[in-house]
Amino acid sequence: MLYLDNSATTQLYPEVKDAMLPYLMEEYGNPSSKYYSVAENAKAAVKQARNHVASLLGCEDSEIIFTSGSTESNNMVIKGVADQYPHVGNHIITTKVEHPSVLETCKYLEEKGYKLTYLDVDQYGRIDVQQLEEEISDQTILVSIIWGNNELGSLNPIKEVAEICRENNVFMHTDATQIIGKVGIELSEYPGITFLSCSAHKFHGPKGIGVTFIKKDQYGIPTKITPLLHGGGQEQGIRSGTLAVQNIVGMGKAAEITSERIVENQRKLSELENYLTQILKNKFGNQILFNNDVKNKIPGIISIQFSGVNNELLVKSLSPVIAASTGSACSSSKPSHVLKSIGLDIQQIRSTLRFSLSPLINQNDLQIFQQL
Ligand code: PMP
């Protein structure tokens, strides 16, 4: 079976599994313990992994907080800022096309009395920075904008968003879950970004581990958020709980490999995307319509309407040979809010399939589409 659902999750790099195994077996120490070897070894492994993730993101080691993944990181930042800065304001700006872990957290806060603005998007799911600028007020405590869209691949103008936030002295968060490993980032070049979320399993690391980047100082003061989990004070007191050493080591290894291969992977994914696009155009002609933009996007994510076809039936019928998705894995039972936000009607949404590619496949693998 050809796995083309890499936006849902990815296969582990074999090196990641090898790096993790000792920490599931003989190196079982708790990194918060002291003086004896298995604890010190675990501590050293976590330190090294933190350094690899920081290098991948272009930030300092101390700005990396390990979490269970992007869902937790998104919750941590949005609830944590809302709780910490009520004296500054109660207004949060986000978009209509965020992942549910952002949208549902925002809805929860809205029910608690916070004021939320959900920015509109264009036909490819990108926000208008002018609209963002107009919406920022002296009550705004956070702007949370997805970097790259999980259904369409479109990249938001994050440089401009970060600049606007900086000019207005507003904290900015970005959900970067989908871009890591596919688009190179260097956080030191984005001084306006205060927080970022990502998950290891989207770039060939293990599931159940992710990171929140928290910029040490923003606008001249140390960045503070209220913890989601209180307890033993791990992760600078921001995220208590015994560290998942084997997962952290796995994420560190995936980050190390990703840093080495990012340029090659990006090129490979673009080539594969162009190749698959051409095969599909040749084969299906005007029976298909592409929802995604061709430029300024995460390479390797394609969203297509197969006119007159029910996407669930199509995914099922393809499933013995190709694994594809009707949208995002997180909310595939409901019609996609992302596709709705770009103006598609229910018929068009119900006929849309997403293919998300991996640098671990090649053009020969995609020949399978010729046989459909
Ligand atoms: N944000 C985006 C954009 C995602 O694609 C996902 C995963 N589908 C998440 C957040 C949540 O990540 P996780 O399930 O690893 O917590």
UniProtKB/TrEMBL annotation:
<keyword id="KW-0411">Iron-sulfur</keyword>
<keyword id="KW-0663">Pyridoxal phosphate</keyword>
<dbReference type="GO" id="GO:0046872">
    <property type="term" value="F:metal ion binding"/>
</dbReference>
<dbReference type="InterPro" id="IPR015421">
    <property type="entry name" value="PyrdxlP-dep_Trfase_major"/>
</dbReference>
<keyword id="KW-0808">Transferase</keyword>
<dbReference type="InterPro" id="IPR015424">
    <property type="entry name" value="PyrdxlP-dep_Trfase"/>
</dbReference>
<protein>
    <submittedName>
        <fullName>Cysteine desulfurase</fullName>
    </submittedName>
</protein>
<dbReference type="GO" id="GO:0051536">
    <property type="term" value="F:iron-sulfur cluster binding"/>
</dbReference>
<dbReference type="GO" id="GO:0031071">
    <property type="term" value="F:cysteine desulfurase activity"/>
</dbReference>
<feature type="domain" description="Aminotransferase class V">
    <location>
        <begin position="3"/>
        <end position="369"/>
    </location>
</feature>
<dbReference type="InterPro" id="IPR016454">
    <property type="entry name" value="Cysteine_dSase"/>
</dbReference>
<dbReference type="InterPro" id="IPR000192">
    <property type="entry name" value="Aminotrans_V_dom"/>
</dbReference>
<comment type="similarity">
    <text>Belongs to the class-V pyridoxal-phosphate-dependent aminotransferase family. NifS/IscS subfamily.</text>
</comment>
<keyword id="KW-0479">Metal-binding</keyword>
<keyword id="KW-0408">Iron</keyword>
<dbReference type="Pfam" id="PF00266">
    <property type="entry name" value="Aminotran_5"/>
</dbReference>
<dbReference type="InterPro" id="IPR015422">
    <property type="entry name" value="PyrdxlP-dep_Trfase_small"/>
</dbReference>
